[in-house]
Design a protein that fits this description.
13% strand; binds magnesium ion; Rossmann fold; single chain; binds adenosine-5'-triphosphate
Length: 267
């Protein structure tokens, strides 16, 4: 089973759009069993799939209030695609002293950092899902560190631009420090999002391929109005506009990521 965290410290780079569409493509086009975990207090992935943070949300798991991950799972209208939602209560966890004592004697912060690794191990034991996909917030919060530590793969969506590249060096450093604790974590690659055909953008892309030290996927996701509309409509891009450029880009990327050949549909 793969556990994939979608991570970038920068906000607004397409993490959530990538997470919700990766989850949808795996479930609807590959027949995979997918658990999408919203690890962002903004709750955007939850809202996208119209999943309320009641009766339970991810914060309950960190606080030790959910007996089992299955208590928090909600189904979407897409077969095979389930969600654990999040809301603002996740943000409170990062405030000192807000975690309650652990009745089992483990320090609360240590238990919380392991929460998603424990969840992953339980999912493997139950053979419940083929993929866990975690949408992370644009910060090194307790939830995102817990997500990275539980991951087999980190995917870094990157909007090509100067500020975004600066943030990536810091992110790589932080992932490396988590890897000292969880050696199985690997950066699967950088996915260029909101791409458009412009010499400056292509220059940034070339620079990244040569200098980032990370795999940059051949497929990129173009800047496209249907993506914004699909977010407003709460429908994955491949359902909202199946033949749109962005739908083809996301399909091509998933194929490349899973080990198939990039079919060159990305313009
Ligand atoms: N390929 C695209 N084309 C056009 N708009 C896009 C594309 N990808 C994302 N967007 C838009 O950009 C905005 C930010 O996307 P998204 O919410 O996925 O970013 P994020 O990295 O998750 O942000 P945050 O850090 O706040 O969680 C959204 O309004 C989304 O609709
Ligand atoms: Mg987001």
């Amino acid at each position: 089973m793969k556990t994939i965290s979608i991570v970038n410290l920068k906000g607004g780079v397409g993490k959530t759009v990538t997470a919700v569409n990766l989850a949808a493509i795996l479930a609807t086009e590959y027949g995979a069993r997918v658990l999408l975990i919203d690890a962002d207090h903004q709750g955007n992935a939850s809202k996208f799939y119209r999943i309320p943070a009641e009766p339970g949300s991810l914060a309950d798991l960190f606080e030790g209030m959910a007996a089992c991950y299955t208590d928090l799972i909600q189904h979407t209208i897409y077969r095979g695609l389930d969600v654990i939602p999040a809301d603002m209560s996740l943000a409170a966890l990062d405030l000192d002293g807000s975690l309650p004592d652990d009745v089992h004697g483990r320090p609360p912060r240590e238990r919380a950092l392991r929460a998603l690794t424990d969840l992953r191990d339980a999912v493997i034991e139950d053979d419940a899902y083929d993929y866990i996909i975690i949408d992370c917030p644009p910060a090194f919060s307790l939830a995102s560190i817990s997500a990275i530590a539980a991951s087999t793969d980190i995917v870094i969506p990157l909007k090509p631009g100067g500020f975004e590249i600066d943030g990536m060096a810091e992110l790589t450093r932080q992932v490396e420090s988590v890897r000292r604790v969880s050696p199985s974590v690997r950066i699967a690659g950088v996915l260029l999002t909101m791409w458009y055909n412009d010499p400056d953008i292509i220059g940034v892309e070339d620079w990244l391929r040569k200098n980032s030290g990370q795999r940059v996927f051949n497929s990129h996701i173009r800047l496209s109005r249907p993506v914004d509309k699909s977010v407003l409509g709460g429908e994955p891009i491949c359902q909202w506009s199946p033949t749109s450029g962005a739908a083809r880009d996301y399909r091509a990327w998933v194929r490349e990521y899973l080990g198939g050949v990039d079919d060159g549909e990305t313009a």
